[in-house]
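Long-time lurker, finally posting.

We've been working with DUF7918 domain-containing protein (Dendrothele bispora) and I want a structural starting point before designing mutants. I don't trust myself to interpret raw outputs, so I'm hoping someone here can both generate the structure tokens and explain anything notable. Sequence follows.
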Amino acid sequence: MLTLGDFSAWITVDDVPLQEYDTKIKDSEIACWVPSEAGKNFTVKLKAKTNLCVPSYVYLDGKHAGGGILGLGRVAEADVSGTYTSSTSQKPFMFSRLDLTDDDAYLDTNHTQIGEIKVLFYEGVIEAENTDFQSYNFEEPGKVHERSKKAIGHQVGLGTEKQVTRQKFSRCRRLRILATMIFRYRPIDILRANGLAPPAPKPPAEPQVGEKRPAPPEDALDLTLLDDETDGDDEEEVAALEARLAAIRNKRRRMKVKSEPGVKTEPGSPPIKKEKKSGQVAQSSDVIDLT
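Top reply, 14 upvotes:
Generated this for you. Predicted structure of DUF7918 domain-containing protein:
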């Protein structure tokens, strides 16, 4: 759960909060990284402890996707789990794989906010209540050039439309922003490869000499799967491996520089820039851009 003053937000999948990593706070903004899994629906949870009127807005990959009004004797918490298609129907939010293409027509498309869930809390004034339904026009994900955001792996899509209880809508005027919360989502393998999440648990130790290997369980993994059963995970696996390879190369470069004797900086030569540890990896030919 991200908390800033009187305001909190978190993301759940199957009613379980996602683990948050590398949380950073700057002024009225707080940000973290969370793991995403393709095909999973998710909900953005909002909470406020204030007597102010607090309209809140949720943006997915830079697109407005709904929100709620907190405070003023209203509900202290709100769930944003999908985009409404009418006052009685909704399409749930869902993590989905990037639709990659090698068509250069998509190379200059702006994808800077893909992989980001943003929540904005405002102080506001209610101008009208019980208004007619108005669509948010949340656009379905488009194609992404394979050289643009390959290390992101996922984007937000929409699930199958379902019927919900009739919703009431209000119109607010925003006065000033109170808090900003950002969840940057990536497949867990990419987070691990970039040092943002702890390594995966180690497999069981190999049996010692003379010990018998345990018999494989009945549900042991069958490696003779058809090609179309495994192709869906190839893009995520390649992105994670590339990110891990870049991290190892950078580590070896730093170790090589430290171990070379007699290396010094000549007068007048530019200083060597030190790498910074952050949630974002610097751009280079061997480093994967998480943004």
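Before you design anything, note these points.
The radius of gyration is 23 Å.
The longest helix spans residues 234-259.
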